[in-house]
Every structure is written in C-alpha cells, then in structure tokens.
Amino acid sequence: MTLTTTTPAADALVIIGGDAAGMSAASKVRRVQPNRQIIVFEKSHYTSYSACGIPYYISGTVKTSEELIARSPEEFRTVYNIDVRTMHRVLSVDTDNKRVKVLDKEKGTEFWQQYGQLLIATGGKPYCPEHITGHDAANVFGVSTLKTGIKIENFIRDTKPKTAVILGGGYIGLEMAEALLIRGLNVCLVNRGEQVMNTMDPDMGTLISEAMRNLGVTLYLEEELTELENADNKVTAVITNKRRIEADMVVFGMGTSPNTYFLEGSKIELGVKNAIKTNAHMQTNIPDVWAAGDCTETLNLVSKHPMHIALGTLANKTGLVAGSNIAGEAITFPGAVGTAVCKICSYEVARTGLQEKDLIRLGIEYVTASTSSKTRARYYPGAKKITVKLLAEKNSGRLLGGQIIGEEGAAKRIDVLATAITHNLTLQNIIDLDLSYAPPFSPVWDPVQTAARKLVKDI
Amino acid sequence: MTLTTTTPAADALVIIGGDAAGMSAASKVRRVQPNRQIIVFEKSHYTSYSACGIPYYISGTVKTSEELIARSPEEFRTVYNIDVRTMHRVLSVDTDNKRVKVLDKEKGTEFWQQYGQLLIATGGKPYCPEHITGHDAANVFGVSTLKTGIKIENFIRDTKPKTAVILGGGYIGLEMAEALLIRGLNVCLVNRGEQVMNTMDPDMGTLISEAMRNLGVTLYLEEELTELENADNKVTAVITNKRRIEADMVVFGMGTSPNTYFLEGSKIELGVKNAIKTNAHMQTNIPDVWAAGDCTETLNLVSKHPMHIALGTLANKTGLVAGSNIAGEAITFPGAVGTAVCKICSYEVARTGLQEKDLIRLGIEYVTASTSSKTRARYYPGAKKITVKLLAEKNSGRLLGGQIIGEEGAAKRIDVLATAITHNLTLQNIIDLDLSYAPPFSPVWDPVQTAARKLVKDI
C-alpha cells in the first residue's frame, strides 16, 4: 500500500505527544514564533493533563477528570493555533526522509507526515508483566494516562470491588494504595524488595513500611508475582512465590519505562532503559530531531551519570527548553538531582540526591546520620514528627543526598537540600543557612539543620 | 560603700543573660569542658524560654507558660552543673579589672563578680516611648520577656478587656493582633508607615494590610501616637495625630533595641543601634569578652553591612558559636541574610535578603517582579494563593531579595530563596533547581520558580 504523504511548510514543527513536555514546547514555540506551523500527534483524546493527579482523581479527592486537564485540544487549536490531532499514534520515524508514519486511530488509516523539525515527547509507559497470563484482564490496571485513570475510576464505581492487590511499592504503588484506601477497599501491596520505596535507603524504607501498615495496608515484602488466577477476562487472585491473595482488582505499580519502542530503526540514539539521549539543548543525535520529557535520559548532577526519571517537573522543564531551542533561543537544561516527594494519607516522604546504594556503586566514601525532630516548635499545636537522613562526602562534608519522612509540613523541606546538593554545599554551609523560624513553622533549628549538626561531627 | 568581690576560678566563664544565646553558649561549653566553672546571671526567674512563643501563650494556643521553657534554672544547676543565678541583674562591666557589678534583686544587695571570660547575652528590649505619660500604666505592655507575657495573660484573664490598641505593625504587633483577636478582643493597630510590616516592600505590605483588615483588625496607617489618656495608673484612650481611640489595653510593638545600656563606659565597642560589635567568632574588641544574640550586630551577607536583627535563630546560632570558641573550638558565624517568617491567623508572611529601599540606598541596580500562584496543584483541595516577589541584580540576575505572602504552605518556601541568596544564585539557577513536586505539595513549577521565570525576562 502506498501511503499518502502530507507535506507541510518546510519549517513545520511536528511534535509526538500532547502532554506536559510536548505542549510545554508547543506553547513556548508559539509565544516566540506566532506564525509557525505546529502539528501535534496525540494518541489519546486528551492534552496537557496532570498524570500525577490521577491517583487523586481515583480517590475522589479531585472530583472530575476534567479538573486534571490544564488545556484541551480545542483550546490549543482555537486560542493558540496549534494543530493538535488527537487519536493519532505515530508508528515510526524516518529520519532520513524527515517524516513520521502516523495512524489515524479513528479512521484506521495510516499516512506519512513530513517535518521540518521533530520533537519526540512520548512519555513513559508503566511496566506490565506481559509474560503473565491475565495481565490484560478487565480488572487489571496500569496507571499512566488519563484514559487508564478514568478506566479505573469507572471500574470502581461500577463494580464496587472490595479488595485490591497492588504490585510494586514505588510512588505510584503507594499513591494508589492511598487512593484505594480512601475508596474503602482492603488493600494488599506486594513488593519485591525488603522495604517499599526503593528510592529511599532501607532504614528509611522501614519507616515507610511501618507507616503503610499503620494506615491499614497489608504489606507482603520480598515477594514476587508469579501468576494471575483468571477466568473470563477477570483476575480473581494474585499468586506470589509465597501465597495466594484474592483480589477484585489488581494495579501495577512496577515502574515506568520510556515510550520509545517505535523508534527502532530510526537511528535516534537511546541510552539508559532505552530513554532517548539528548544534549543540554534537548537535541538528539539526529539533526532537527529533539526530545523531551519522560522518554528522555536525564543527567544526574551528583553522580554525573545519565539516569531515567519520569517526573512532571522534568517533563515541563525539558519541554520548555526544547521549545526555546527549537524557536531559536539557546537555553539549556542542566540536569537534575533526583528530587521527588509523595504523600500517603497523613505521611509525607521526600528524597533528593544519591542514596547509599548509589554511593557504594560509585565508590564514594560517605557518612550518614538521621535525626528525628518536629515540624514546628515543640510546644506549638500540630508539631509533627519528622525524620531527616543526610548523606555527605566523607572528608569534604559535601551533601550528597537527603531523605525525609514525616507528617504534615515535613516533605517540602527537601527543597533546601536539593538546592544545597545542586550547588555543592557542605554540612557546615547548611548549618550556617539563615532559614526561616517562627513557632508555627519550625523549631529554632530547622530539622534539616539539626540533621546536619549531627552528621557534621562525623566528618 | 565597698562592695564585696567574688573571685572564682581564674578561667571562670561568666554569662550575662540566661536565655537562648547565653544558655546555648553555656550548654556548649559544658559539653566540651565538663569541669569548667560557669556562672550565669539572669535578671528574671526564667531561663531558656521561647520568647517567640509568647504571643501563642497569650492567644491560648499554647496552654501554659511552662511549655515555653526548654530548660529551667534548676535543671541547668543539677543536670548540667551550671551555676545559674536568677533575679540577678548585671549593672555594669569593668573590663579593666575583669569584673561585673551585680545586683541581687531579691536581697537588694550589689557585689562585684570577677570573670576569666565574659559572655554578654542580654538580648533586646522593646522600644517604649518613655517621654509619653502613661507609658508605664498597668494596662500598657511591651512584649519581650516571659514575665511580660505572663503579665499580659493575667491581665486579660483578670480584667477581661474588650478593646486593645497595638502601636506598631512589625512582627510583634501583627502576632499580638492575632493573639488578641483569638482572645475575642476588638483590635486596632496604629502604624506610622503607610503599610504594616516595613521589612516588606510597600506593594507586599499592602497585601498584608488587606489581610489584617480581612481578619477584623482596624488599621490606622500613617498615624503616630501623641498621647496616652490616663488616670490612676490606667490608660483609657490612645491619642494619635489624627484621632482618639478608646482602649482597655495598649501593646507596644514598635521594635526592639539591643539591651546594652549597662555597657556605657565599659570600652566595649557598640555599632548599629548600639548593638555590640563582634568578629565572626563572636569576640568583642576587648580580650576575653564575647557577645551573642539580640544584643549584637549581625553581618548582612547581601549588603555586607552590619545590621541589628533580634531573632531566635540568630541567638541560638551565635550563642553556639560563642560557646564553641570560648571552649577552644574555632568555628565562625558567617552572618545572615535577614530571613524572617510570621503567621497571622490564616496568613503567612516571609522575607529574606534586601528590600527595595535597601537596594536604592546601596545604589544597586535591580529588577523586581511578583507573581501569584498556588501552594498546591490548582485542582488539589486546599491549594491556597501565594504571592512571591523577587528582587535581582540588574545585569547578573543574582537574587538579592525575596518576599512571600500567602496562606497555608506558602511561607516556608522562603528557605529556598534564603539558600539561593546566601550562595549567590541567579534567577536562572532558581529556574533550574530540581525542587520537589507532587500535587498535594506544589504546582509543577514551584511558586518561587514561577516568580523567577517571570523576572528573568527583565534581566
């Protein structure tokens, strides 16, 4: 079959993916270049929604899925003159001929689209154990796109499940545990590691596991999915290497990988976990091809190694940088230190920088200590427990990592540590910081400084 | 009269003032030097209490005055072997003969106390318009020591006042307004400037004035106290240059000055507002004499000029540094950037660095912008308004100041700006920071980054 080829203006910008990274870039280009042709292919019905908000929609904390949408395709078309084509999936990229092959999902037809410049912003996809029968049953869910979020919400509303098994104890797994607890389900969480949240050190992970149990989640640690008992497109139980757990629904929270499978044979260079390699301008190795968001590698500013992190902040930033450069402004994305934060009911968890296993792997000599203090003056009502763990380079005292677990008011303190790590501050620098204090906000020594005071003695 | 002279061990440490700075130093010296003689003269009955907590005790948020006390004189004596002498006021310092003249307030006797080393940590005292008759009436209060806090609480409990006039719209004035509102009083606040909180720029001050009015405080701006109508040791009305305001009680919140009047003739060098000049080790110009806390100057790290700030954080830090050096450890206090935070009912106010009037006075060319955004993802319940104002050096983009007004979750974000200012970060550095994001904690771009993005365009 010979496909039709759509030839746009020579400098047309084609963007694959209409969420955070893609639409940040599109909006930036539009601001700088009011007349440029911008075409966006988005495989779903939705643009610019908050994927991070999906668990809160499922929990009912956010009432409608529409609230998660920052800007609709219609708004992009009419207000911004951006040619957003929803329900269009890009099947492959032909960089030699500067064109992409597109499937119009509604019409069922395929065509070639020429581009002047191309931005790939296809995001990530949740890991799904496709070798296990039942992985695609009607009551088994990944959590990634708004569409999957709506599917889960509809399933809960319509079938009123009583028990859920979550597979995987990362951010998504924990946030989904919160959501399903709020919806009144009995929640079991199966985790391969000895503690949930493996982006935290095991001692901090233990505290999170305890917190999850306090909330009523049944944790099965050091267990692995082996089988899904299923019949008639419905899973009835999760089988692990240790037990059988009955389930009305199953949620995968086993991490995400970059959505780059369609780039096979495109000559676009991939790196860690098949994420797209870019330079600091978000350019790939192929001229006129850019990439941004969860489908790309990110430079870890502490280890100096590339990593793959799927995070809304990075998607927005790299989208903006890609858009700026595509529009002729030369700004750069320096990389990240791996800051992340998560709320699970009344608990707050945050981390930044490297963790012990990273430091051991990199052969960096380090010291570490953790301290527990309060989020407010000890006598001020609502003062909550906060535990801060710091990791610092052995001789220099340079901060390398920080982890926080606590209740209300704890987590956002990670930002001072992220700033400190990015700019090579030492523990003494942190102690010397003039941080804000009043009894409703902090003890006199902020908890991050109390932790630094303890650890500095070991330097 | 010939006074008796008490001669202690040759290396005895005498500390004047038993609150944050003095007792931080004493505790530090005790940890390093278990056998050293340490004598503390404290003019009140109390040691180591949170002066910052007094408004919350008056409001009833903190139930008892005891809760504000971290460690009692008795505990210092018995557990730490620190010879704390309460109700002892130091009247003068004779540096030539290394001795201080002390009044035993209970016995009414005076004596000379020799010292090996001396630490002055006498704090600040609230400004009181002593030229105005009635300033010392029974229903007129300053807010500084725990004793004055207890006096106010007793007065409210016993006389059930209905109306209060607060003179001065700084932190203490605003926190006392909150406290008295909570206690059910009608509160008027008289402020000399055109907006309250003159440590913020007038445009931000306007927002605070609005917030105060929303809370039910009657504000009289650009007005000055001229007279206190009084009879029988009781003020009945405050007279300003514009009106007469009836009052059951009057509170002074007109700032504090260093408590150094007793150093006249001591040869100890004073600086800004008669605060004691020290080096970074907290040594004064006189050998073996140290100073710490609210009675000292602080180096402003942005202007490079000395300033006077009375803040619990600085008192604790400089006390610790003085104690370390007195005990033979050579650590330094680098200075501060003027970070402060304040809660007034549901409103949060924070500031750091220089403000416009400082920059104009210093002749520094600057750009400034403010933005309003939300404390959480816009769709997440409890997302509150936050306004961030940034000031940056004109050509370099180096951050010079930050001011925040908002509701729950707003103020503590000042810490990232304080860290940025201390380490000479630019607006672009702030945009590039990997700050934490999840919908319950922040929009994708943290409000401080949104402000930096707006202002960077003007560089």
What brief labels describe this structure?
FAD/NAD(P)-binding domain; 3 domains; homodimer; five-stranded parallel β-sheet; 459 residues; 25% helix; alpha/beta
Question: Can you describe this structure in just a few lines?
Answer:
Two copies of one chain form a homodimer. Chain A folds into three domains: 5-124 and 257-326, FAD/NAD(P)-binding domain (3-Layer(bba) Sandwich); 128-254, FAD/NAD(P)-binding domain (3-Layer(bba) Sandwich); 340-456, FAD/NAD(P)-binding domain, CATH 3.50.50.
Q: Find the count of extended strands of chain A (DSSP E, 2+ residues).
A: 26
Average per-residue pLDDT of chain A, rounded, comes to 96
CATH topology descriptor of the largest domain in chain A: FAD/NAD(P)-binding domain
- From the alpha carbons, calculate the radius of gyration of chain A and give it in angstroms: 23 Å
Name the biggest interface: A-B, 61 and 61 residues
Q: What separation lies between the terminal Cα atoms of chain A?
A: 69 Å
**Unreliable runs of chain A:** none
Largest sheet of chain A: 5 strands, parallel
The CATH class name of the largest domain in chain A reads Alpha Beta
- Which structural class do you get from the secondary structure elements of chain A? alpha/beta
Please tell me the CATH architecture of the largest domain in chain A by its name. 3-Layer(bba) Sandwich
The helical percent of chain A reads 10-25%
Strand content of chain A: 25-35%
The quaternary state of the protein chains shown equals homodimer
Q: CATH superfamily assignment of the largest domain in chain A?
A: FAD/NAD(P)-binding domain
Strands ordered across the widest β-sheet of chain A: 4-3-2-8-19
Global outline of chain A: globular
Number of helices of chain A: 11
Cofactor (chains A, B): FAD
Keywords (chains A, B): FAD, Flavoprotein, Oxidoreductase, Redox-active center
Protein name (chains A, B): Flavoprotein oxidoreductase
Pfam families (chains A, B): Pyr_redox_2 (PF07992), Pyr_redox_dim (PF02852)
